[in-house]
Inverse folding.
């Protein structure tokens, strides 16, 4: 991506200036809930992006301006006697002018492969709360994505999902609804900005059945298995989508 630079920052490289810059950037894309104190939220955000096992990825223009970010934590757990590794993404935002670059998908693929590469002795998953846009992006990148409460989740993954959600969010995770109450309220995307294909439209309807009031600040907890075949399918879909987008721009 010409003129754009990606940096992957481990906790030791996330200094005060970067924390402040990233927190401010987040609030350009999502508003704090009315009951959330900004000072308390900044403290939680700072602790999160500096947590062990985490990586803060940032995208900058050539002049140093921050235009994209996403944070990942890796959780190694033993659940029901099986070793699992969970990649937990959060705070994924990209300025509108740079979303067509596919940066989020590219950096996610890099980090998934680096941090949670499939192992024959360890199951890998990506799991975390998702507003509608994040869920749709994940569905486009991976062939299997579950929302908490879906009837088709295997029993092991169903229990693991609720265990991880409870560990990460405590009382903010509702076991009955599968929703997480977050401190932010998302800015609504522009309607009609990008037409949805049939599969994305189906995923959108499914999400809205689970979480119709997502714009108020509740996010559905999702989980997806990380497999080499899934990477291959997701990469192929991304290449096709970006090629089609480039063709459409060139045809204008």
């Amino acid at each position: 991506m010409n003129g754009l630079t990606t940096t992957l920052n481990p906790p030791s490289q996330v200094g005060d200036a970067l924390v402040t810059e990233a927190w401010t950037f987040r609030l350009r894309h999502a508003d704090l809930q009315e009951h959330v104190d900004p000072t308390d939220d900044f403290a939680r955000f700072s602790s999160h992006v500096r947590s062990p096992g985490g990586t803060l990825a940032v995208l900058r223009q050539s002049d140093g301006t921050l235009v994209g970010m996403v944070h990942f934590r890796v959780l190694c757990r033993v659940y029901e006697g099986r070793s699992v590794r969970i990649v937990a993404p959060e705070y994924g935002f990209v300025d509108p002018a740079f979303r067509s670059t596919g940066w989020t998908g590219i950096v996610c693929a890099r980090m998934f492969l680096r941090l949670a590469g499939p192992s024959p002795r360890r199951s890998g998953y990506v799991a975390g709360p998702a507003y509608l846009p994040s869920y749709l992006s994940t569905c486009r990148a991976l062939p299997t994505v579950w929302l908490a409460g879906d009837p088709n989740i295997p029993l092991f993954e169903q229990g693991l999902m609720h265990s991880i959600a409870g560990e990460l969010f405590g009382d903010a995770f509702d076991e009955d609804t599968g929703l997480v109450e977050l401190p932010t309220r998302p800015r609504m995307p522009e309607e009609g900005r990008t037409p949805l294909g049939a599969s994305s439209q189906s995923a959108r309807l499914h999400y809205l059945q689970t979480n119709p009031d997502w714009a108020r600040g509740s996010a559905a907890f999702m989980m997806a298995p990380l497999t080499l075949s899934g990477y291959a399918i997701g990469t192929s879909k991304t290449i096709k989508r970006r090629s089609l987008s480039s063709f459409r721009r060139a045809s204008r």
Notes: Helices lie at 16-26, 38-49, 103-116, 132-141, 155-169, 198-210, 228-251. The chain has one domain: 4-245. Residues 241-252 have pLDDT under 50 and may be disordered.
